[in-house]
Amino acid sequence: MKHDSRLDPEVRKLVAAAAAAAAKLPPLPASPSPEVERERNELLGLPGAAGGPVMAQSSERWIAARGRRIFCRLHRPVDKPALPVAVYLHGGGWYFSSVDTHDRVAREIAAAGQVAVVNVDYALAPEAKFPQALEESAAVVRYLAAHGADWQIDPSRIVVCGDSAGGNLALATGLLLRDTGGPKLRGIHAAYPVCDSDFSTASYDEFAEGLPLTADKMRFFWATYVAHAIDMVHPLAAPLRADLKGLPPVLLQVAEVDVLRSEGEALGRRLREAGVPVDAEVFAGLTHGFLRATGAVARAREAMAKAGAWLRRVTA
User: Fold this and answer.
1) Please, what is the end-to-end C-alpha distance for the chain in angstroms?
2) Residue 238 Cα distances to 96, 149, 165, 268, 282, angstroms
3) CB 144 within 8 Å of CB 118
4) Domain ranges, ordered by start, for the chain
5) What pTM does this model have?
C-alpha cells in the first residue's frame, strides 16, 4: 500500500486488515444511497467499537432540540455524583458513523479523563445540511448546562470533544457558544479535525491517495455537508478561517500521515497567535482515525492517555 513506510507497523497491519474486511463485502452499486453506504460503514466499524473500558453506568437519553429528539448515550466511568462531562461528537465526514461505531472511543475518553461522556447522535448530511449538526451539538451543551444536575453531572464543567468531522463540530461548537452567550466551556478536544476546505495543502498533495481517507473522499464529504459552495468557507464550517480569540483551552491531536495534517498544524499556529491555550501534537506514524485503534495500536493508547490527562487538568 502507498505510504506503507510512513505508517507505524501496528497501524499498517490494522489498515491492511480493514481493507481485507471491506474486500469481503459485496460490491456497492454504481450510485449507492446514503442508507446503503452507512449500513456498510456500520458493518465495518462496529467490530472496532467492542471491548475497552467497562463503565459504572451507561444509559440512553434523549434531548429535544432543533425540531428533533436527539439521541445521546451517557457513559459514567465511576459511580459518583457531579462528574465533569465531555460532550463527544463522532467522526465520519458528517455523513457516516454513529454513537455505536464510536462507542469505544467515548468509553475510552470517559475512563482516561474520569469524566462522564455524552455521545451525541447528531443529524447527518445530506439529509441535514450545515449548520444543523452544529446547532444540535451546541443545543446539547446548552441543555447540559441547564439540566446537567438531573443527569448527575456538573453543569459548570463541560468539555466538547470530537474526532475528524466531530473535531470540526467541536471547534465550531466552541465558536458558536462563544458568540451566542455561552455556556462557557472548560475546553475543546479536537482529534485530526477537519479545519478547512482547502484541498491544495502540502498534506493533501502528499496523501491524496493510498490511505483510507483520500482527497476525493474529503471533497465528497464537503459537497455533502454544505448546501451551497460558499458555505465551505464559512468560519463555522471551516474553523481555520474563524477569529479564534476567546476560545477555551484546546487539545489538538493530529495524525502525521493524513490529508488533514497541514490544516491541523495551521490551526495550532492560529490558536497560539490568537492567545488561546493550546496543547498540540502531531503523532508520528499514525493516520486518520487513530483514536479508534486503542485496542490494537500502542501509540493510539498513548494519545488517549494524553487526552485523559488533559481532560483531568481542565476539568479539575
Assistant:
1) 44
2) 19, 33, 11, 14, 20
3) yes
4) 4-23+35-314
5) 0.98
Quick one: fold of 4-23+35-314? Rossmann fold (3.40.50)
258 as an active site residue: the answer is: yes
The answer to whether residue 288 is catalytic is yes
Instruction: Tell me which of 164, 197, 203, 262 is the catalytic residue.
Output: 164
CA distance 304 to 2: 27
pLDDT in tens, the chain (316 residues): 677 789 999 999 999 999 999 999 988 888 899 999 999 999 999 999 999 999 999 999 999 987 899 999 999 999 999 999 999 999 999 999 999 999 999 999 999 999 999 999 999 999 999 999 999 999 999 999 999 999 999 999 999 999 999 999 999 999 999 999 999 999 999 999 999 999 999 999 999 999 999 999 999 999 999 999 999 999 999 999 999 999 999 999 999 999 999 999 999 999 999 999 999 999 999 999 999 999 999 999 999 999 999 999 999 9
Catalytic-labelled residue, pool 121, 163, 196, 258: 258
User: Catalytic site residue 97?
Assistant: no
Q: For residues 187 and 130, what is the distance between their CA atoms, to the nearest angstrom?
A: 23
